[in-house]
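Retry 2 of 3 after timeout on previous attempt. Resubmitting structure tokens to design endpoint.
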């Protein structure tokens, strides 16, 4: 059973962002599966690195759109991104030095943060910019 299931309720109305969210969900689900199968630290560390890399890419894409369209809530949205990224960076460092274990608390944090962020912050972004992004064709990766 997946930790997070994609559904239309998670759509923010911008196709490229929705596709990127699906990939983030897939990565978190892979980490969850690997943790529950008790994969070694090399596998889990690699998956955490992949999640962090893709998260930075995805947040950069959203922030590029917000800047391009002068989104009024850009600064607050970017702060949310920074908080999540910093949390994952700190955990990844602690995990790499065996100072932390990948357990349900981190997995639940990632699930809750991502779904809450999508359902509130990203949906507002989609409502504010969705039509402009589609009309201008700004829906492909950077």
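Retry 2 succeeded. Sequence:
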């Amino acid at each position: 059973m997946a930790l997070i299931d994609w559904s239309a309720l998670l759509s923010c109305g911008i196709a490229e962002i929705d596709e990127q969210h699906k990939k983030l969900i897939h990565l978190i689900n892979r980490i969850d599966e690997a943790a529950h199968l008790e994969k070694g630290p090399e596998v889990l560390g690699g998956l955490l690195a992949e999640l962090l890399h893709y998260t930075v890419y995805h947040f950069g894409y959203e922030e590029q759109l917000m800047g391009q369209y002068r989104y009024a809530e850009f600064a607050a949205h970017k702060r949310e991104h920074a908080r999540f990224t910093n949390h994952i960076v700190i955990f990844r460092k602690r995990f790499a030095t065996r100072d932390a274990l990948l357990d349900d608390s981190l997995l639940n944090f990632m699930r809750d943060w991502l779904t809450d962020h999508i359902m509130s912050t990203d949906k507002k972004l989609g409502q504010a910019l969705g039509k402009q992004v589609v009309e201008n064709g700004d829906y492909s990766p950077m």
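Attempt log closed. The radius of gyration is 16 Å.
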